[in-house]
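sorry for the late reply, my laptop died twice this morning and i had to redo everyting from scratch. anyway the thing you sent over, i finally got around to it. pasting the sequence first so we're on the same page, its 92 residues, then the predicted structure underneath. double check i copied it right bc i was rushing
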Amino acid sequence: MLDQAKSTAGEDVMQFMMMVLPVACTILTPVLTKFGFTADQLGAMQFIASMKKFDKEESIKEKAQSMKAKFIPPSIAPMLQGMMMGGGGMPM
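ok and here's the structure:
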């Protein structure tokens, strides 16, 4: 499902947010709820942002980067981050 959503969304950030993020939230639901985040896009963004606290922990940092790479294409990551930061959202 994730690969199909990513393929359909391509490089379009708005399509990514409408198609890929809901699928990602579905996949991440067990992890999000286990650690007290809501099982929605806001919870997923908060979860990713919370990983920033562990940048000094190399094993956690690597796992966070690996997880983000599975969901967020590197080509649109800077634009997504800019949108979320500019809109008062959480850093990725």
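The chain has five helices and no strands.
thats about all i looked at so far, will dig more tmrw
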